[in-house]
Amino acid sequence: MEFALTLALLALFIGAFWSLLWLGAALFAAIGLGFFEKLFSEPVFVYPATWLVIGLTLVMIRNRFRLIQSVRQMGEALIKALLPLVALIILLFFAVLPATGLQPVWDTGRASSILMALMLTLLLFFNAVFHQTQGSQPYSTWLRRIILLAVVLLPVGSVLAAWALWLRIDQYGLSLDRLWAALLQALTAAFTVSYSLLLLWRRRAALPALQRANVGLALLVAVVLIVVNTPLADMRHWVAEHQVKRLLDGRTTAEAFDINYLRFQLGQPGTLALRALADGEFSQSQPELARRIELSLKQTERWSQDPLVDTQNLTDVARQFKTSPEGASLPIPLLNLLVEQNSVCLSQTEPCQAIQISNESLFQWLIYAPYSTQGQAYAQINAENLNDWQQTGTLIALGAVQAQFNNDCRSTQPTTDLQRIPEIVSTYRSGNCLYSSQPTLESIRQQLFIQSDENRQAQRE
Fold first, then answer.
1. Do 243 and 141 share a domain, yes or no?
2. Pick from 197, 217, 188: which is nearest to 120 by CA?
3. Are residues 266 and 337 in the same domain?
């Protein structure tokens, strides 16, 4: 407890120290003195300053032992008051579970993390309160039995958490987060099963046995954490192999295969897996997948805005767009405009969605970047000049006609049947979904110029 409190105070002091430094740097930068802002970001200053502050803070904390002792006693009192509540929550959850079934738990998508948080909290609080093996026992007999019953039933929570995690892995495959969660669950299960067995087996003499078990379990945790941070158990390699295997087995489609995750989240193992996949027979039968891998390997940074295609080759540029309806093609002047604007679509490994709207005068094409809910609208503003194209605005998803479907429509792109609603300004409908058009300043100026020109011609006539 004292060690944890020391670390907490140390982190608080370091955070306050750097916050003040950055506030001071921002203040000087506001008057044109950027020297301090640059200095405070240099490693040659950051590391020595941080370690100096750590040393001074530790000396101050150790010289105020009574403060640490007082905070510890307060923390122990709060934990002692909260432990029965945590135990009661877990017992009530297990009690109502047979009546509600497991499906509502799985539907949350957070079942595993919620159960793990509650179980770890109970284990932490239990050890903090029942750390003494001699003397009077805390709580009354009936309250102590409730707490011990909750600890005995913890393996049930471990099974449920593992089941929930397995459902996610089976549906989406392994990721680093899920693999770390599986490791954490396995270590937590070692604690919960050990505690449950010792409490059932040793009964009143279980507390000394639990303390001895904590030493062995702590050594197990230390060994596992050391091993997983060595090449002996590189989890990035396991995840990359698993994701590629799901693709080859057909459990993941080529369109859903997350190339960027392997490229930028899994480091060298992910890059090597992508190169091996690109050189294999599977990619030869999936040209679009091979192209996405090739573009991803060209990227130096995940969010780089540098084009990945030859902007002088409009055929290569056009391959960055998936058009609707099928067979439609982006006009060459529009492709030139997108190149001139350095469109985000040119720096993406995933193709942008380009939707041709034939029944709308304000825009003829909507272009959606990957995972974007806002479409960029483009139109040929001069019917006599085929090369005169302009970005006219942005189409924003509002929601659904029926309120209960709002969430679905806010992440849905319109189809080619997009229709303007005449009664409402700048509002459109595609199926059950509603959209709003926000014009660009340049398009407004263009419309004002056209109206002014038309008015002058009318006056002349």
1. no
2. 188
3. no
